Amino acid sequence: MRIGVYPGSFDPVTLGHLDIILRASKLVDHLIIGVLKNSSKSPLFTSEERVKFLELVTEDIPNVTIEAYQGLLVDFADEKNANVIVRGLRAITDFEYELQLAQTNHKMNPKVDTVFLTTSVEYAYLSSSTVREIASYGGKIEQFVPACIVQSVYEKYNKLRRG
Known about the structure:
Blueprint: E1 3-8, H1 15-25, E2 30-36, H2 47-57, E3 64-69, H3 73-79, E4 84-89, H4 92-108, E5 113-118, H5 128-136, H6 147-162
Parallel strand pairs: 1-2, 1-4, 2-3, 4-5
């Protein structure tokens, strides 16, 4: 059985992430989306909220599950018996960093290979940080994130503004 892990912060999940998820789910028997809980960062959404959003946007993809994790990705992949790590590449500038990670992960666990999927052209510019920036100023994000989470993103910023 081919088990893949697609890791990320997904803060929030974008249409670019969803594109990678859909394509990766066709390459493996089971795709686990690993939502990173990074104690050194302050995400907009909690890991629980990010898991919930991903569950909503992937509910029609039967071979996808969502899990939050902490620590090293290669350890999480090993724990889940994954043999593939899926990473998305938006631009050539992503490649050098991702290549170093892939080589390090393979050195730490030779049973796990990394597969790179290039982002579809229509999402090549898109990132969660861009979405957060637009939403923080009340800009329209409907063309960047799945429809089912748009209101939640706006509500989070409204709540932050109210203090």
